[in-house]
Design brief:
Length: about 220
């Protein structure tokens, strides 16, 4: 009887341990832990995504509710995809402004250094392809701006280390790795008010103000 009882207790303990570990490792539990830590630290983190591409649906929902949108992109490919499509089609509420910052695609810019870094592990990225992609995305945004006067495009020439997508309520911050594409890099979703949202807003605002030349004025360089 004692052996039977011990066996039952052991089985229950093992089951409880397995369930507990599963709960700790589950996405919902992680989100709960992040929310608690964020609340008491003041960081304002709403969610963590292991890969930026996994945040696309959540981003689309936040963009649909936005009054103002700011994008500081490392390449800008997502600007042409589903998450941003409602903005360009006018399917969402009227926006006060959409400000887009793309990296300067000239051959002596920081973007060229980023391309060199990516080509170390991505053999499909030929020389000049990243710069060409940014130029194409810039043309896409320019075409949109012809139909939506709230859209503005500027270029920045700074280290290509992150992507920031801002609305009046939330910030999506992707930190690029040296050996990883942005879509596979971790993405932090920070809400307002919060320290991370405030930092993202300051970075975007200062970069926008420093990038005084508009996209339309830079057409000769593209």
């Amino acid at each position: 009887m004692n052996e039977f009882t011990l066996g039952v207790i052991s089985s229950m303990a093992a089951t409880a341990f397995s369930v507990g570990v599963g709960w700790i490792l589950s996405a919902r539990a992680r989100d709960w832990a992040v929310a608690v830590l964020s609340r008491y630290s003041g960081l304002g983190v709403r969610k963590l995504h292991r890969q930026q591409r996994r945040a696309a649906d959540e981003l689309a929902a936040d963009l649909a509710r936005a009054q103002w949108v700011g994008v500081l992109a490392g390449r800008g490919n997502e600007l042409t995809r589903d998450a941003f499509a409602p903005l360009w089609s006018g399917a969402v509420r009227p926006l006060d402004a959409v400000q887009v910052l793309l990296p300067d695609p000239r051959e002596d810019s920081w973007l060229a250094r980023r391309e060199e870094s990516l080509r170390r592990f991505d053999r499909g990225l030929r020389p000049g392809m990243l710069l060409e992609q940014v130029r194409n995305n810039a043309e896409y945004v320019r075409e949109v701006a012809l139909h939506l006067d709230v859209v503005e495009l500027r270029f920045y020439d700074l280290p290509n280390l992150y992507r920031i997508v801002l609305t009046d309520e939330v910030a999506y911050i992707t930190l690029y790795g040296d050996m990883e594409h942005g879509r596979n890099s971790p993405c932090v979703v920070a809400q307002r008010p919060g320290l991370l949202y405030g930092l993202a807003l300051r970075i975007f605002t200062s970069t926008w103000e420093a990038s005084a030349v508009t996209g339309n004025d830079r057409g000769a360089h593209l």
